[in-house]
Write a structure and sequence with these properties.
homodimer; 171 residues; mainly alpha; 0% strand; DNA-binding
Chain lengths: 171, 171
DNA sequence: GTCTATAGAAGGATAGAC
DNA sequence: GTCTATCCTTCTATAGAC
């Protein structure tokens, strides 16, 4: 907390003026805010690639590139908090859960727009988010991008398989 | 540390007698030990199901069941440590990396035994571990098993797709 | 070689001056 | 309503008695 306040060049007491709930409230709001920020990345990448399979490939490639550029220090800002706090703080757990549900909803919409039925779209999106999050864990631990590369390839295949035959481009 | 020592009914100083490296060393050895323990679960489940696709299904179903029984409090003992410490402790990061590499190697052997070429076996195993780890993150945050269920279905499909046509059982 | 008692730092939170 | 100074707790680690 002291580090955060110093970094913000604010007096220490201000934290408790603006965040009466203290550390937990500040954490929860940070999760929601950075979660929404990450969520905005999704349409950004997807809209640049009209083909869903290409978009998935691009997304994982970008994730791998960002991870290396961040020296393997920053990946998903939510996952760490989710694992650390889900059993000890209902407020923080709920914030993480809401962010994940938003991402699933956001992704599902785009996936469905590619011609995949609503339920299948949700399932595909959940699987891709799970694979992305898990790959981040493996990559940060090993300091390699192998898991992200491999995961991207599989997710592209999954997207391909979920597409209705009529809309496949053969990527 | 105090909690651990108290739980072990040991005097506090003993920690630093047996683990001169303090918290970091104790953590690293815990990661390696519980990682190996989890690793032993893999052959246990896989050997009970001679068909790889069935084994994958069983593994995810078991993971979901265990998670619910643990009230969503315990999932993977390595992932949390990996995310929390990879940027701040080289010793702990390396311990997590070694565990993950062991799991990949262990899994690859079994997958390869189902008739999948060595490289494809490694890629499939990495993808499945990533999806499992990511699903744990989502499930613990949402306190639902949806992500694990969905991930299990996709991993079964992935295993199916990776099998040589001659060995497919049509599961 | 085992353990107790405590050091020394960092943690989060608050009281009360302005 | 803003901020400073400080409180109390908790943390990891160690010194030194036995």
């Amino acid at each position: 907390m002291k580090e955060i306040v110093a970094n913000a060049r604010a007096p220490f007491g201000s934290v408790y003026h603006f965040f009466p709930g203290g550390k937990e409230q500040l954490g929860a709001e940070t999760v929601r805010r950075s979660g929404a920020e990450c969520g905005r990345l999704l349409p950004l990448v997807l809209d640049a690639h009209p083909d869903l399979v290409e978009a998935v490939r691009a997304f994982f490639a970008l994730a791998a590139q960002d991870l290396v550029e961040a020296n393997y220090e920053d990946a998903c800002p939510i996952a760490t908090v989710a694992l650390e706090t889900s059993s000890t703080s209902e407020i923080l757990r709920q914030a993480c859960a809401d962010v994940f549900e938003d991402w699933i909803e956001l992704g599902s919409e785009r996936v469905a727009a590619a011609g995949i039925p609503r339920d299948a779209a949700r399932n595909l999106t959940i699987a891709m988010i799970a694979m992305l999050e898990g790959a981040f864990v493996l990559c940060r631990a090993t300091r390699t991008t192998e898991a992200l590369i491999v995961s991207g390839q599989w997710c592209a295949k999954m997207a391909e398989a979920a597409m209705p035959a009529s809309r496949r481009t053969g990527n």
